[in-house]
Specification:
Layout (H helix, E strand, L loop, with lengths): L8 H16 L6 E10 L6 E6 L9 H9 L7 E4 L10 H8 L7 E3 L3 H4 L8 H9 L18 H10 L3 E2 L3 E7 L6 E7 L23 E5 L5 H9 L4 E4 L28 E7 L2 E7 L18 E9 L2
Parallel strand pairs: 1-12, 2-3, 3-4, 4-5, 7-8, 8-9, 9-11
Antiparallel strand pairs: 2-12, 6-7, 10-11
Helix pairs in contact: 2-3
Amino acid sequence: MRARYGVPLSITAVGAAGLAYAAGFEVRSFRLRRVTVPVLPRGMRPLRVLQVSDIHMVGGQRKKRRWLQSLAGLRPDFVVNTGDNLSDPEGVPEVLDALGPLMEFPGAYVFGSNDYYGPKLRNPARYLIEKAQGRHGLNGNAPAVGAIHNPWEDLRDAFDTAGWVGLSNSRGRLKLDGPGGGVEIALTGLDDPHIKRDRYARVAGGPEPDADLSLAVVHAPYLRSLDAFTTDGYPLILAGHTHGGQLCIPFYGALVTNCDIDTDRVKGLSTHTAGGNTSFLHVSAGCGTNRYTPVRFACPPEATLLTLTPRD
């Protein structure tokens, strides 16, 4: 039997079932990714870093808030937030409620475009068109007109009050207590390259030699940022933004990354080579979505616990 206009009912049913799964189940099927990265000096104790990204909080997302709160039970050595906390101008209190237990730990953060600006309704097919045309965000499109401005300053003030280190085109340090004495972590971050707020010249110079470890942090993993960090010799770069492709094809993977990184590195741990150096790169698929596209398929929402170990 066929539906009107020649569309088979079986295809219609499969499409409806897929949409129901993507919007009703997978988008709330929160996961913890665990990876091990050998970047520490020899003899140094392992460190556990919790990366949260792309929360895109919208009012009423109670399950997401509870899940984020529960991550404090992992007892990380420190937390890195790689941006896009908001998808609702009224969402700041709920973001802070969700991250409250994690803000008891040392932490650092960068912001993404959705921390600064509210989302707009877009045809998802535009991402494929922009990819084919080589355009990504404000790197290839005209500046947004009439954008909603989110209260990012309230997020910044709360993070700073909790002792988290802001890394928007700046450097900072975390001092961690633990067995055998304190550990100094130097961090270098960029503001969001997706909307051309990155200013690498302000932070250039590479790792800090008197720190036990230097890390690089950016929201969107654009190649110019990855090239700069890698050329300067950072052993590990943390990023988000891609949503892991968000709508993926099983056994194939992501179709788009919403930046100029390739789809093979759209999420998880990989490497990046530039300037004769190679860095580890971890891209979080994030735990949220734009409020206008609240679906995920073959790409569950996630946070990541990275265990940093000594290099061989």
